[in-house]
Specification:
alpha/beta, single chain, 12 strands, TIM Barrel
Length: 254
């Protein structure tokens, strides 16, 4: 097994870090640069920054936010939100991101996944997959886009497999049912995705206590563990999570 990585996530709106529950009821969670500096100091292996309103507001990711955060850290930064073209990707990478994450744009234009993987390298391309329970789907989970507002009528696990075939290097599934609840990652959803692909899967949405991180690896098949509210509100530190995982016998990134 590869070394497990911890990846705090900065959900951005109006220049501030925010966090909600089930994609709604957003509240302020701090300054992005201050959060990024703290998380790197605590031992974060990577950082995600998602402009959660960009697609809904029909605009591009705010490049000034990326420049501010990327200049404050040395760890890899993955940026998502409002990325819908090769030009967008180039601008985001030039602003300081090491990787990009696309969601709605990949569903609307699957060729963008393959084109970006060829041009910038598969390791640069993460496809974020938002899903919700739907018994009519083979995996039990339906793909949703536009910030969780629009169901697509497509199986989320099948889409993950398609994204891998298109050249994506990482899959970032987030369960709408678990997001922000702190009741634990949606292990069924994470497992459905990880069983469908051979590339790294990022567990996302719902982490609330130490056991949740361990379960995401052992039961969900994730290699990278993303969390937001538990870190933002100081419920857990990154150091605590890493120490716990090591105590449980997992190999964790130094």
């Amino acid at each position: 097994m590869k070394a497990i990585k911890i990846m705090p996530c900065l959900d951005m709106k109006n220049g501030r870090v925010v966090k909600g529950i089930n994609f709604i009821d957003l509240r302020d969670a701090g300054d992005p640069v201050e959060c990024a500096e703290l998380y790197q100091k605590e031992g974060a292996d990577e950082l995600a920054m998602l402009d959660i309103a960009a697609t809904l507001e029909n605009r591009k990711t705010r490049l000034e936010w990326i420049k501010g955060v990327s200049s404050a850290i040395d760890i890899p930064l993955t940026v998502g939100g409002g990325i819908s073209s090769l030009e967008d990707i180039e601008l985001v990478l030039c602003a300081g991101a090491g990787k990009i994450s696309m969601n709605s744009a990949a569903v609307n234009d699957p060729d963008l996944v393959s084109e970006s993987a060829k041009r910038f390298g598969p390791e640069t391309v993460t496809v974020a997959i938002d899903g919700r329970r739907n018994k009519k789907m083979p995996s039990g989970f339906e793909l949703v886009i536009s910030g969780g507002t629009r169901p697509v009528g497509k199986d989320a696990a099948a889409w993950a497999r398609e994204c891998q075939n298109l050249g994506a290097g990482v899959i970032l599934p987030t369960s709408m049912d678990a997001d922000g609840t702190r009741d634990g990652y949606d292990l069924e959803f994470t497992k459905a995705i990880s069983d469908s692909v051979d590339i790294p899967v990022i567990a996302s949405g719902g982490a609330g206590k130490l056991e949740h991180f361990y379960d995401a690896v052992v039961k969900g098949g994730a290699e990278i563990l993303l969390a937001a509210s538990v870190f933002h509100y100081r419920i857990l530190s990154i150091g605590e999570v890493k120490a716990f995982l090591r105590e449980k016998g997992l190999t964790v990134q130094q």
